[in-house]
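Glycerol kinase 5
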Amino acid sequence: MDLYGENYVLTVDIGTTTIRSVLYDSNCKERGSYQEKVNTIYSTGNDDEVLVEIEPEQLFQQFLRVIERVYKTLPPNAHVNVGLCTQRNSIVLWNKKTRKEETRIICWNDKRANKTCHQLNNSFILKGLNIAGGVLHFFTRKNRFLAAQRLKFLGGMVSHRLIVTINRSEKLKRMKAEGDLCFGSLETWLLMRSSKSNTLCVEASNISPSGMFDPWIGAYNHMIMKIIGFPTDMLSPIVDSNLSDMAKKPIIERSHIGSEMTISSIIADQQAAMFGCGTWEKGDVKITLGTGTFVNVHTGTTPYASMSGLYPLVGWRINGETDFIAEGNAHDTAVILHWAQSIGLFNDVTETSDIAMSVEHSNGVVFVPAFCGIQTPINDETACSGFLGIRPDATKKHMIRAVLESIAFRVYQIYSAAESEVYVNKNSPVRICGGVSNNNFICQCIANLLGRPVERMTKSDHVAARGVAMLAGYSQGLWNKEQMKQLVTIDDVFTPNLESRKGLLRSFEIWKKAVDRCLGFYQ
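Predicted structure tokens:
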């Protein structure tokens, strides 16, 4: 087939466990892909906290390599634009003069700021802010002040991990004082490394979960940053997901891969997955099961102030117009399966669905997935993981089933919190993606618990990459929203079994008791 002269979008999906490039043609059909495993480094910090880091030079070379491997499959004069989707809230600091990194990439699930956040959440400053927000909301009825009433700092936010990282290093404190220190999330850092000519910026969906962004004004929340002592002089300007508000689109220099390439769109990984699932209307629901679990509900053109720990995020911002989502998450999903495999519960993760289905129930065994604490809707970063209810007749099969059920239970717990607060359209499908969604047992459990059909996306682990390609093509006029609906493809549909649902809900109630016993363990 002659590919000469066509328009292409080459997307790069930079995740916590995998970095991949995927090539799409002008009909958004996948024409090639290449991926590598990201080497994520786990270690213990000063206060026995879990540090999660990535070597920046290694990741940048992987970034160039995955692009080059796919780019080489094209004819010389093909028209290619690059789209990036990146893991959110992972940061790196570098020297402004030398452009050399001063830290490793500090990942979104790194726990170095947990103690600081716990202290701040119990401080008079935050309690005063919460009270002020409540009073202002009472008189104005503005949701922005309701959010201030419920504000709680989380270790996964950028703000406190950056402050803690700087304060622990005399060199970084000196560089900051001298104006030589820069920081950025992954997209900002990649722009810095890709070309000296690029204007440093942060993309709207990436900055929105950082703890520094106010979705009600669409800009940085300088008041909060002043209260916590954040170095606002280090901030980069916020831009649209399709980069339409940049005077000059960023590039990847010719020196890196032999050809200059234009970056035409950037979006955060979960928002890219939501776009790729076709969940573009108010009330649509997307579930991602990857390194973590993410449940996203489209809330339309206004952010939502949650009472149960859902986070109001920018879904995407195209030509200055913003779609918002509410998000609940659990940090431990794929990592739980990797751990279970490492201790010998099973040999091959692809066999776990059949193993779980080979027993009628978990024999009373339950598992609490909380290596990084429990997030939405409980938000207890001092919770612990554990198997409970183990009896002499418990087997590996029962334990495997308990682990898989725990992933489904966390989804249901988050979904229930979302359903109680925001509008969920029961007439639109729940769509699921991510590598762990290839497990049929987990998907069926989720459908049973939700009492709704769950549609699994085709090539479920490529959905984020496809989402940024669709966004790039949509922004460039390759297809409109109606045409994009034809680009969304479903691999399988899981229909709820109402009889199985009864037993699963009973197990869920037992599991919630186990969760209660694991809360506050590390206080």
